[in-house]
Amino acid sequence: MEKIRKLKKYYNNINIELTDRQAEQLLQFYSLTLEWNERMNLTAIVEEDEFFLKHFIDSSLLAGCLDMNGVESLLDLGTGAGFPGIPLKILFPSLQVVLVDALNKRVQYLAMACDSLGLEGVVCIHGRAEDLGHDTLYRERFDLCVSRAVSELPVLVEYCVPFVKIGGSFVAYKSKDVRKEVEMAENAASLLGARLKAVHEERIPETEILRTFVEYEKTGPTPDKYPRKSGKPSKKPL
Ligand code: SAM
């Protein structure tokens, strides 16, 4: 009960009113993560408050700067232990969510976790962005693609923009002054059919941690040659 109250208070601080069900699902996800963290490397953050703030609240800050109305489908690229995809799915239960990661063990764990949380409309896919970005099941199918702590922007743009529908968005979770990174990604964005729309900065309440969201709008189709072969985007960023 105490934990539910605490979680609701943290969410109130970012203007989100959690239902009991949402708070329970988040708590259950926290417990599952801790339990499975003993068997596989999921996260270095295990202390309760730190986990709530740095994983749940951080993932959810996006809702304060992006209009989620009209977003029906979301792909989280390099989701790892489910961030930010799982908290976003819990907050917006009608979202159709695809969680992608290159590490099969994590993907298998996430499928089990979604099942035990009773989350419907989540598909967990093992694969690399460079391959899945050419698969017609995923290419240009999503209203929104998000990614946290996966790579530098020029690489991320090549990984993520191919998944986005024309008119949809790609939002990168970044943590420092991103001006230089944004400039370096200009070429990639224009080659992939996207344009920078906005940079939003949010602070995780009760901390000094700043989260920067870099938002791109997909303005035209991604040419067939992108993303390039596995490993190429990170070795030779556009
Ligand atoms: N997004 C999570 C978070 O913020 O906690 C996990 C971040 S973890 C540092 C990076 C994850 O990205 C890893 O789980 C890794 O397997 C995945 N990843 C890296 N490159 C990838 C690629 N090209 N395609 C798919 N997943 C990738």
From TrEMBL:
S-adenosyl-L-methionine binds at G78, F83, A129, E130, R148. Gene3D superfamilies: Vaccinia Virus protein VP39. GO terms for cellular component: cytosol. InterPro entries: rRNA_ssu_MeTfrase_G, SAM-dependent_MTases_sf. Pfam families: GidB. Keywords: Cytoplasm, Methyltransferase, rRNA processing, S-adenosyl-L-methionine, Transferase. Specifically methylates the N7 position of a guanine in 16S rRNA. This is Ribosomal RNA small subunit methyltransferase G. It comes from Anaerotalea alkaliphila. The gene is rsmG.
